[in-house]
Write a structure and sequence with these properties.
Elements (H helix, E strand, L loop, with lengths): L1 H17 L21 H10 L12 H9 L22 E5 L7 H10 L5 E5 H6 L21 E3 L6 H16 L32 H14 L5 H6 L6 H17 L4
Helix pairs in contact: 2-6, 3-6
The chain binds iron/sulfur cluster.
Length: 260
C-alpha cells in the first residue's frame, strides 16, 4: 500500500514538472529525482506569475466582487496574491474594478505611473472596460484603456469571482509567454511615464495636445475679421493627417505592450 502511494506521488510530481522541463536536454533516468533542466525564462516567469501582487484599489460595485474573490471561499492565496498591497510601489497588478469617472482618471494614471515594472492592468467589469451602463455619460470615461494599457479585460456587470479568477489565469498565460530578453522593462533607457490627463470642463489627454491645438487654434487663426470668434466655437472636422497621427500613436502603444 505504502509503495503504491509513493509511486502515485512521484507520478503527480513528474506530471507537474513536465511543463518546466527543457524540450531537448534529457536528464538520465538515474538522476531524474535530483536534477531538472529548464530555461531561465520558465523560472523567471513562473516566479512572477506565482506572486502577482495586486493593488488594493476599488472604484464601485465591481470592487465588492473583487473583495469576495480575495476572501476564503475563492482563496487567492493559491496564486500567491492573497494580500492586496496598499502602495503602488509594492504592486505588480492594478485591477481596475468599477466605474472610471473623469475625476478619478487622473488619479488612476498617476498611480499606474508609480507602479514599478513589470506591471500589469486588468480591467474588471463593463464600466472599466468600456464605460458600461454609464457609457457616454457626462462624468464617465469610456474605458480605462483610453489612458493606460490594459492587459486583460473581464466582461460582466459585475463579473463573478470565477470570472475574475479566469481573467487572472489568462494574465498568467500572458506572463508565461514573455521572454526576459525582449520584455520592455529591461530595454535601454527609462520607460516613458504616461501623461496624467487634465481634469477640466471635459477631461483631455495630454498625448493629443498638439492635435487639439492644430484643430482648434489653427482653424480659428485661419479665419479673420468678425467671423473669427464664431469660427472658434465651431467644431472642425479632423484632417487625414491628424487621423494618421492618432493611428500611429495607438500602434506605438500597442507595440510596447505586445507579449514577447
Ligand atoms: S460594471 Fe456593473 S457592477 Fe461593475 S462597476 Fe459598473 S455598474 Fe457596477
Amino acid at each position: 500500500m505504502e509503495s503504491t502511494m509513493v509511486t502515485d506521488f512521484k507520478d503527480i510530481k513528474q506530471e507537474q514538472m513536465q511543463e518546466f522541463l527543457h524540450d531537448s536536454i534529457q536528464v538520465p533516468d538515474d538522476l531524474q529525482s535530483n536534477v531538472m533542466v529548464t530555461t531561465l525564462d520558465k523560472v523567471y516567469n513562473w516566479s512572477r506569475k506565482s506572486s502577482m501582487w495586486p493593488l488594493l484599489f476599488g472604484l464601485a460595485c465591481c470592487a465588492i466582487e473583487m473583495i469576495a474573490t480575495a476572501a476564503s471561499r475563492y482563496d487567492l492565496a493559491r496564486f500567491g496574491m492573497e494580500v492586496m498591497r496598499p502602495s503602488p510601489r509594492q504592486s505588480d497588478l492594478m485591477i481596475v474594478s468599477g466605474t472610471v469617472t473623469k475625476k478619478m482618471a487622473p488619479a488612476i494614471v498617476r498611480i499606474y505611473n508609480q507602479m514599478a515594472e513589470p506591471r500589469y492592468v486588468l480591467a474588471m467589469g463593463a464600466c472599466a472596460t468600456g464605460g458600461g451602463p454609464f457609457k457616454e455619460g457626462y462624468s464617465v470615461v469610456s474605458g480605462i484603456d483610453k489612458y493606460i494599457p490594459v492587459d486583460v479585460y473581464v466582461p460582466g456587470c459585475p463579473p463573478t469571482p470565477e470570472a475574475l479568477i479566469y481573467g487572472l489565469l489568462k494574465l498568467h498565460e500572458k506572463v508565461e509567454r514573455q521572454s526576459i530578453t525582449t520584455v520592455p522593462w529591461y530595454r535601454k533607457g527609462a520607460s516613458e511615464a504616461i501623461p496624467v490627463p487634465v481634469l477640466g470642463p471635459d477631461i483631455f489627454d495630454p498625448r493629443k495636445v498638439q492635435i487639439i491645438k492644430e484643430q482648434t487654434l489653427g482653424a480659428a487663426a485661419a479665419v479673420k475679421g468678425p467671423a473669427a470668434s464664431k469660427a472658434r466655437l465651431q467644431p472642425q472636422p479632423m484632417t487625414e493627417d491628424a487621423k494618421a497621427r492618432i493611428r500611429a500613436a495607438q500602434a506605438k502603444y500597442r507595440a510596447q505592450k505586445q507579449p514577447a
